[in-house]
Design brief:
Layout (H helix, E strand, L loop, with lengths): L11 H8 L7 E6 L12 H17 L4 E6 L1 H4 L4 H4 L8 E3 L8 H8 L7 E7 L1 H14 L3 E10 L3 H14 L2 E3 L1 H9 L5 H11 L1
Parallel strand pairs: 1-2, 1-4, 2-3, 4-5, 5-6
Helix pairs in contact: 2-8, 2-9, 6-7, 8-9
Length: 202
């Protein structure tokens, strides 16, 4: 089976979307279901948390709004403290449907974000369930979707990879945390990059 890296771009339209540089003024970050009882069995969970933290820090510095979801928090706990602590004042949107786009509250908040937010940056879990269904919902609603492949995961490596492949086939751009951050900051001389650099070296 072809790997994520080997999978060809499916259409000229996809290639055009992948060529477009990320613009902080057009982006929103969606942090999906990084929760207390869901995290322990996740494949490479430490990398997921670290990279999600990097994306949240970058979003804060670049004034990119962030939305956070939880899946049935009453049963599986709230957002883990190491993520929640970086998002003061951002309340998690609790849902029961797996896709964030199944939540009226999420959709309403997304539409009310300031500026022209037509690009969603996704991190969280699980790659093959809530992240994939959110990506598909976003694509159906006309958003450009970039998925940080090293800031999403699943309980098994197989499902993490299958989730990425499904999202890519549907038109999402599969990226990485550093790829997103370096693209958003654009230059080593930018104030944003200099502020993030100590965290990138960590």
């Amino acid at each position: 089976m072809a790997s994520i890296v080997d999978a060809p771009a499916s259409t000229p339209e996809y290639a055009e979307i992948a060529r477009r540089p990320l613009d902080p003024d057009q982006c929103a970050l969606v942090v999906i279901d990084i929760q207390q009882k869901l995290l322990p069995p996740i494949f490479q969970k430490e990398e997921l948390v670290r990279n999600s933290q990097l994306l949240i820090r970058a979003a804060g510095i670049l004034k990119i709004p962030a939305l956070v979801s939880t899946q049935y928090a009453k049963g599986v706990g709230g957002t883990v403290p190491e993520i929640a602590s970086l998002l003061p004042g951002v309340d998690a949107i609790d849902k029961t449907l797996f896709s964030c786009f199944g939540s009226d509250v999420f959709c309403s908040l997304l539409k009310r974000l300031p500026g022209q937010r037509n690009t969603l940056l996704l991190c969280g879990m699980e790659s093959h369930i809530c992240v994939s269904q959110t990506a598909l919902g976003a694509l159906r609603d006309g958003y450009v979707v970039h998925v940080a492949s090293d800031a999403v995961s699943s309980r098994t490596e197989w499902n993490w990879k299958i989730g990425l492949e499904r999202m890519r086939a549907a038109g999402a751009v599969i990226s990485s945390t550093e790829m997103m951050i370096y693209e958003l900051t654009r230059s080593s001389s930018s104030a944003a990059f200099k502020e993030l650099l100590p965290h990138l070296k960590g």
